[in-house]
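May I ask you to comment on the folded chain given beneath this request?
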Amino acid sequence: MPKKPLFSPSWLGVLVILLLLSGARLAAQQPTAPRWWKGNLHTHSLWSDGDEFPEMIAEWYKRNGYNFLAFTEHNAIASGSQWVALRAATDTAATRARQQARSSIAALPAYLARFGSSWVEQRRRPDGEFVRLKPFSEFRTLFDEPGRFLLINGEEITNDSVIHINAIHLQRLIEPQPGPSVLEIIQKNVDAVLAQRRETGQPMFPFINHPNFRWAITAEEISRVRGVSFFEVYNGHLDVNNEGDAQRAGTERMWDIILTLWHAAGRREPIFGLGTDDAHHYRPESSKVARPGRGWIVVRAAHLTPESLVTAIEAGEFYSSTGVVLRDVRRDEQKITVEIEPEAGVSFVTQFIGTRKGYDAAGTPVIDAEGKPVRTTRRYEDEIGEVLQEVRGTSASYTFRGDEVYVRAKVVSSKPKQDPTSDAALGFERAWTQPFLGAP
């Protein structure tokens, strides 16, 4: 008599299905490997002083390979109901209203052609014609796409003294905080962002914008701010003086000074350098002062969500760029390694920059031709932020000697940057890694 099979064919089928489901569950439980996400954290639209509708701006960034974009309007967030006049205001005090009206008139035809009259809302009243600015909660529905593109709400907290602080992924508007000095204004605005984070439990962070815009902020002032871990080392606006001048330090030089001053003060934490657009002008006929696509960050995070991005950015898991693409940035106990995406006909130089122990952190004031001190970052010895090593090629490593306070890498390409700022030295594509702290 033949033996009865242990499992009938039907039971075998059920068993196979159960095993497949179990395997799928186990695979789903495995952590997602981090990957690189490209994004911009400084953007303006018609909600403040940009010259384009936010939908047109979001589409530009998504179409051009970005994964995330933060709208950061001056003292505004895109919420509520706002209608923009389609004629220039005559009130001499309404400068922004006149600018906004001119921009909306110029931008409307392309906006209508792209999104249609069923999306674009217009109305006529006795005092003129108007078009509605869609709030963030509405226009984001056209663009958010899991694993591909994400819009983030933000604000550029703007004081009359040209001190600007960006707040990323905030929940509600933060009014600019007054103060008797540059340092106190920055500190109070930073504190307001951190207070909202504590109150809401929502991850968000502040950063200091374009410190050399009208030479508003010095490295020494930034070095005394508490609770901020970011500033713009590169901003794509033409008027922000990234490179400094004969009397004033550029923003990259300021970065090294701040890192060193923090170490001298016993602060065992880095300040990270952000690359941003600060875009305002988007149409072909627009001004070239603040166009999109000039500066960005690339974040290594597991998920394309605000929470995952903020966590990674706060951990320094990102680099800033004006065109150079990095494959990898890593550090172990002995060295830092930078891997660069090769490009035909393009060469790369990686500079490892840092400060060693034994530096002089005193600095000297800058004096003008009449012998008067200039209100600017002090001058420091070349040992602060010196080039420790220079490597050519698409792979570069730096081995720690043991006395480095910090080390960061800058990659300079031989490829001219498309649509560069007016800063001659920034006319070639480059990238900046975040600093790695060394000796206590």
Q: What stands out?
A: The first strand starts at residue 35 and ends at 40. Residues 9-29 form the longest helix (21 residues).
